[in-house]
Each structure stands twice: as C-alpha cells, then as structure tokens.
Amino acid sequence: MITDIELDRALNALTVTMSDQRWDALDVRRAQGVVDGALGGERRLLVRETGEIASSGRNLVARLERSGDRWVARRELPAFGKLE
C-alpha cells in the first residue's frame, strides 16, 4: 500500500530530478530508481514506458509529461489515503 504523502514524495522526487537533470525523454530504469529511492528502497510504484505511474496493485495513479522545460506528474486520482 502507498499513502498520499508517499505518493507525493515519490512524484516530487521524480519530477524534480528529471527537470533538474534536464532529461529529454523518460528513462524508465532511472525513473524507477528515483521512485524506489524516495520510498525507502521499496518498489511500491511502477513507472511504465508510457509515462504512467501505477500502484503495486496496478492502479493508475499519475502520468508524467513535459511542460516546457519541466517535467510534471498529473495525479489521476484524488487524495485516497491508502491504495493497494
């Protein structure tokens, strides 16, 4: 399970890293490493080639996209407490 706070922390770490390092495109392997690191080394979110981010239960929780020279994560769900 993942909480809203953990999701926000992981998405923030990912978008800040991608933007600050000026990634031209999504590198799933690197992105997954950033997300896992933000969650204490646990794989509780999955980064997909499409830019979708899913919970470990495979529910879509966010999408990555470019906005000018920055990366943003658009949450696909409202605050939910915990999600499997």
Please, how many helices?
A: 2
Arithmetic mean of pLDDT: 91
pLDDT < 50 runs, ≥5 residues: none
Radius of gyration, in angstroms, nearest whole number: 12 Å
Describe the protein:
- The chain is an alpha+beta fold and 84 residues long.
- It is 33% helix and 30% strand.
- It is built from two helices and six strands, in the order E-H-H-E-E-E-E-E.
- A four-stranded antiparallel beta sheet has the order 2-3-4-5.
- A hairpin with a 4-residue loop joins strand 3 (52-55) and strand 4 (60-67).
- Helix 1 crosses helix 2.
- The radius of gyration is 12 Å and the shape is globular.
- The termini are close together.
Tell me the layout of helices and strands:
Elements: E1 2-3, H1 4-20, H2 28-38, E2 45-47, E3 52-55, E4 60-67, E5 70-75, E6 82-83
Antiparallel strand pairs: 1-6, 2-3, 3-4, 4-5
Helix pairs in contact: 1-2
